[in-house]
Amino acid sequence: MPPAGGLCLAYAVAVMESIHITDLEAAINYWRDRSPAGTGAALAPATTQLAEVYAGMICAKTTAIAIEDLPDAALQAWLAWYDTQPDTPCIAICSTSQGDDQCKGCGRSFAEVQLWPGLSPYAKRAVWRRITDEGQAWRFTRYAERAVEGRS
Fold first, then answer.
1. Taking all residues of the chain, what is their mean pLDDT, rounded to a whole number?
2. Is 143 helix (H, G, I), strand (E, B) or coil?
3. Which residue has the higher pLDDT, 140 or 24?
4. Chain centre distance of CA 147
5. pTM here?
6. Which of 30, 93, 142, 147 lies at 20 to 30 Å from 76 by C-alpha?
């Protein structure tokens, strides 16, 4: 369980140079939709690269992989998927500007809101994962309609 409140950014930094298995799975599904299997059910190269990493994680019973352990092709495929995701969980109801330590709208800590533009893709996804797992922010409850992302 990640730390709460002001320590949220520390949690993101601690896991920022890794990719969680759920993000890897989402990237695989993105590439499967974008480049379906070809003749003989052969997977597209990006899907193959990600699937090999995913299989290794399943066999090792691990839920995250360090960036430096990813083959470059898998990392590039993951980053291409990442670029299709919404950058920020903000729903334009920021209670940190009212003095809250944690935004009621998106669930990020004050530090995460302030430092968001400078966070790496891995740190941002760690924050997204935490706030999604917590599910307490208004983006997941009372104002969920504001959080509906347009998908391409």
1. 85
2. coil
3. 24
4. 15
5. 0.79
6. 147
Cβ-count burial of 41 within 10 angstroms (0-12 exposed, 13-18 middle, 19+ buried)? exposed
Contact 4, 109 (CB under 8 A): no
Cα separation, 48 vs 46, in Å, equals 5
pLDDT of 151 strictly over 50: no
Q: Tokens for 49, please give them.
A: 């690269």
Q: Among all chains, which residue has been given the structure tokens 């799975």?
A: 25
Residues 16, 120 contacting (CB under 8 angstroms): yes
Nearest-angstrom CA–CA distance, 137 and 152: 25
Partners of residue 20 on adjacent β-strands: 64
The pLDDT of residue 15: 53
C-alpha–C-alpha distance, residues 51 and 43, integer Å: 9
pLDDT in tens, 52-100: 999 999 999 999 999 999 999 999 999 999 999 998 998 888 888 788 8
Check: CB of residue 89 under 8 Å from CB of residue 147.
Answer: yes
Alpha carbon distances (Å) from 67 to 87, 122, 150:
20, 9, 28
Residue type, 71: P
Cα-Cα-Cα-Cα dihedral sign, residues 102, 110, 119, 10: negative
